[in-house]
Amino acid sequence: MHSLRLAALLIGAAILEAGGDALVRVGLQRRALPMLAGAACLVAYGVVVNLGSLNFGRLMGIYIVTFFVVSQIVAAAVFGQLPTARAVTAGGLMICAALVLCA
């Protein structure tokens, strides 16, 4: 159950961070509401990502991989930017690194 809770926290934090970044990007086109919503998401991300019980270095290592995967999904869904072959390769290597951290 601990692993499931941690996975949910990391995925939730990544969704808040990538979504917040996307909203800020939209807000930079002189739209105040998305900018404010993005800022709120980024603050919430900071709280959620630190709810995990792992030591900070290990937590951030695993989180970075989670964020990378979620950000690729957001880039495709929101901006129509599909990952390149390099990004897919890098993502695969990052997932391998996360598995080492989880062991």
Features:
4 helices, single chain, 103 residues, flat
Task: Describe this structure as you would to a colleague.
The protein has 103 residues and is an all-alpha fold. The protein has one domain. The protein is 83% helix and 0% strand. It has helices spanning 2-27, 32-49, 56-79, 85-102. Helix 1 (2-27) packs across helix 3 and helix 3 (56-79) runs antiparallel to helix 4 (85-102).
Helix content: over 70%
Number of domains: 1
- The number of helical elements comes to 4
Major β-sheet profile: none
Structural class: mainly alpha
Shape: flat
Tell how many strands the DSSP assignment holds. Answer: 0
| Radius of gyration, CA atoms, in whole angstroms | 15 Å
Strand content: under 5%
User: Which stretches of 5+ consecutive residues score pLDDT under 50?
Assistant: none
Order of helices and strands: HHHH
Summed over residues and divided by their number, the pLDDT gives a mean of 90
C-alpha end-to-end distance:
16 Å
Question: Which SSEs are present, and which pair or pack?
Answer:
Layout: H1 2-27, H2 32-49, H3 56-79, H4 85-102
Helix pairs in contact: 1-2, 1-3, 3-4
